[in-house]
Amino acid sequence: MTIDIPFADAFQFDPSPTWTRLREEEPIARVRTLAGAEVWLVTRYADVRMVLADPRFSRAAVVKDGAPRVALAKPLPSSLTTTDPPEHTRLRRLVSGTFAHRGIERTRPWVADLAKTLADDVASAGDGADLRQLFALPLPIAVICHLLGVPYADRERFREWTELGYSMSMAERDRVDEAMVSMQAYIGALVAEKMTYAGEPRDLLDELVRAREEGDRLSEEELIAFGVNLLVAGHETSANQIASCVATLLRFRHLWEQLVADHELVPSAVEELLRYNRFSEVGQLRVALEDVEVEGVVVRAGEGVMAALNSANRDPRVFDDPDAVVLTRPQNQHLSFGAGPHFCLGAQLARIELQEALLALLRRFPDIRLAKPAEELEWRRVLVSGLAELPVVLG
Ligand code: HEM
How many structural domains is the chain composed of? Predict the structure, then answer.
């Protein structure tokens, strides 16, 4: 039987029971996406990891004519997320230095200061403040704008395009393509402006423009795709995860209290919350380049396979008591940043943002509470799972 994905009971706090059923009874299942494509869905940890890392499953094929689509927006070609090695390796090498562990750690004090300032804004707003709007969103937006060299003042515009780009709401279908064109035109204009600048590079887009001028094989299309990809991937997921982390900790308040009592637990708590929180209501799409057998089923060349990260993160074959939040969980090999060549470029930056966000809130608001029960919080109908609101009482 083909199941519609997102599942009918998606977009709420706890994952649909369908994930558990599929993982146990039908580890490779047929699903129909919102865009009307029939693809395979794998839900066990080992299979999810294999699909993400095995070169027989392609990202480049996702932008070919007739390829299955998961969401409403068409993926942007020539970007990190829509190329395979060796093109992918060439592109990734141009930015990997900036996001590597040692380099990106230099931003930590700056991120910590920013989190402190935003916590002041939350304090000024008082009880009922929406932590998503005042804290979770502006933090990663300011960070990625700073790194990339995108004006923070333009955030309202690129937020709207990002929301539409990730939309899983059929009502918005007609506006999605237009938003993607506007986003590319916006980055295109920014890149054109940067091409006229002759001084020392001030940010990553300046560096990429310079690399292109100095003969690196980087087309203008690839340069724009970099800008769009980094701007969007660089804030949407972090913002959602900051809000989800706080919401989970406040939903099970003893966890918040555990962290208030011991800030040293924050790094391992972040890993556990990343494992526990949902990343998406669907899976990461790949297209098979040849016939491949998975769990006794032959996936034919050209067919799509979605690798469900959230389901892998709750697989009892790998994680003891997977539905419990254990802030000190040892050997937490979650797949929230993916695996294989497309492993999240910004993983260390995201960790810094999440850790510093939590530390700032723990210090400033030890008595904070949710302003309404967690089960009543609204979720957005978008590709990357996230709360629509996070109202809090500051205590
Ligand atoms: C908690 C926050 C984040 C989560 C959970 C997350 C998750 C992921 C996942 C699962 C992938 C792999 C997708 C796939 O294989 O199909 C990915 C890729 C990517 N992420 Fe993140 N991400 C986060 C934050 C960031 C940040 C802050 C950046 C900033 C640069 C970023 C940039 C990227 C890029 C550029 C890719 C594509 C990498 C490639 O294809 O080589 N992410 N992310």
Answer: 1
